[in-house]
Amino acid sequence: MRARLSLFLLSAATLVFEIxxxxxxxxxxxxxxxxxxxxxxxxxFGASGTLLxxxxxxxxxxxxxxxLSRLGPACGxxxxxxxxxxxxLPFDSFSITWDARQVAILVVHYLALASPFFFSGLAxxxxxxxxxxxxxRTYGVNLLGSAAGCAxxxxxxxxxxxxxxxxLSAALAASAGLMGYAGLKGLVGPVRSVxxxxxxxxxxxxxxxxxxxxxxAPAMELRLxxxxxxxxxxxxxxxxxxxxEWNAFSRVDVVQSRxxxxxxxxxxxxxxxxxxxxxxxxxxDELSPIVLPGADPAFAGYxxxxxxxxxxxxxxxxxxxxxxxxxxxxxxxxxAGRVTAVEANPLxxxxxxxxxxxxxxxxxxxxxxxxxxxxxxxxxxxxxSLASSxxxxxxxxxxxxxxxxxxxxxxxxxxxxxxPEGLFVVTRWLQSPPSEELRAFALAVxxxxxxxxxxxxxxxxxxxxxxxxxxxxxxxxxxxxxxAIRDFAAGRAFDLIYAPGLRAEESNRYNIQPEPIYFQTxxxxxxxxxxxxxxxxxxxxxxxxxxxxxxxxxxxxxxxxGQVLAExxxxxxxxxxxxxxxxxxxxxxxxxxxxxxxxxPAVRLRRGPSSGGASPIPALIYFGLIxxxxxxxxxxxxxxxxxxxxQPAYAVTAVLFTLLFFSGIGSRLSARLPHRPALGVLVALxxxxxxxxxxxxxxxxxxxxxxxxxxxxxxxxPLGVCMGLPFPKGIAWMLARxxxxxxxxxxxxxxxxxWAANGAASVVSSVVAALLALSFxxxxxxxxxxxxxxxxxxxxxxxxxxxxxxxx
Length: 808
Description:
- By secondary structure, the protein is an alpha/beta fold.
- Helix content is 58%, strand content 10%.
- The strands form 2 sheets. The protein has an 8-stranded mixed sheet with strand order 7-6-5-8-9-11-10-12, with helices on both faces. Strands 1-2-3-4 form a 4-stranded antiparallel sheet.
């Protein structure tokens, strides 16, 4: 009992550390590096199983209680030590292609981050090896502890910050070790518990200091990449952070500085100084201005959105994710009667409180997609705020980030909230050649067409020197409206890109290009038939994203590969210019390492003594497939529930906690359920989800949040129970194929080897899931996961056990 409680705490600590790493690296580096480093670190689980399989005699000598008492503090010390190492020895992603030292640093980071997972994996592997007939209970405790860690990792940052959650995970691991020492007799327990006790006391002091607001060790403060927006903002002489808070899914900073002058799209004909403002950053990047009270209102009339309020005076406006509130301030200064601001992050509302506290502003803390599906109000102006900073699209740094605001379904939902003469306003950064703004135009065209409307008469696009703005209506633009837009553009030196009846010579007058490339490209897209062929021929990927494939920032095509590789190490871009190659490189590395972790024990099992002489190949296939399948199902489910539950944190909590918790219950019940029928039910559920979930979401998205959360748990619980069965049932099947319930020789190495194969395959699965989602969408990833479970079922059918599987 004490060993299982220790395993529960250690499993919770491990998942707290894992989830928190994704947050820390998203803040300190960039999205895809967080994904890469954590994915590689998870290979530590596989390495632990491989070690136990290669040295089975050592594994057999280990007593679970004393062993866990040593592994717990070892894991905790590695959590704390690896964080301090990567924080003190930062990795420079931009110079890796010409600075060989960065490759070495990346390897050191990987090895350091793998170490906590290695010791945690050893704990699970030793318990499985010691009692293979009790695999269901051991695996169940591991999953239940992970579920508890998931909930804790999402709640703790609000009180402790990301750095404090590192300390929390180390404290849980130390507690797991002390639980094991409590069972030792005499002075042995107190003497051996000194490292664990010392680690726990340090962690408790650090946690107490953070809760009390006292100073903490400077080495624990998160160091940022010099290329993050916050690093740039703090270089100005008088810059200072005046607000910094964490929550479950972000860190929000506000910088006070005279150097913050951000008004995206402002006409260069505005000759006055910009209004005083602070800079708001989320995850230390994407600076958004917070215009301070008392600013001269004249600047608002020179922003691209001003035309919407000129055409619709005293408008009822809906502004989606206004971040620091520039569009809210602009709307109010331009005479909007009332503004509804929908912002998903409550920390942003807190940081820019004077904007959102205006009596003319109704603030809704919810994702814009959830609000658009739930609300029934219609507006004169619906504005999709520009919430990101300018990024050259060839950097590829944001190609892996999903964005549900820029999908066909999102634009269709926005159009449904327009009054009959309402305007939908979208502004994006101007790129050359056209790409980012062209994809936004493609989204508007497709949304209008899918709503049965002719886009040629309902779209206007214009550009300044750094942004492009779309105006979209559900009714054709009138002649008077088009004339007003022409006058507005001429007065502010904005160039028209597309408007009904626009001629080429009207489109390139102020911000002059050698050719009217934007007019030519936009009109060519609109006229193309079939449009899919036009998208295929265009140099960048600009086809409109959908909810099933919501990667607005992914512009990479394989036709660019030659140029990207030719420029590798010669341009100031991370990895030479395409985030897609980061995934490919990671996949190759994961495949090589996973193959080694899985195949080395298989060779030993084949050559070593075996009671039944059964080939290890079927077990290799089985555990590899279920390792692949788990994350191929879990990852797309998290993404799809973001829409349903409104915020990423809620989706991660609901999906991960429900799947892990009910998988733990399924594992505990595995002895009572037959193997092949249970796998068959799991396959049927996994194949049915891509068809079932969209229909349920559409029917129930208008329910209150508690009802949607309860329905989410009810939908995922049966799947979770079934997902907890394949591993323990597979252990019983593998041992039964050897002919004994607890074989003493060759098959004893097979149990930790199965743990190694499952862990190694899951790392490959996380990379494969991202690649498949980018290329084919989330539904395809779910189908791939279901197919892997089907392959595992076929393996069991084709290679039945020689005798009935032993019951735990």
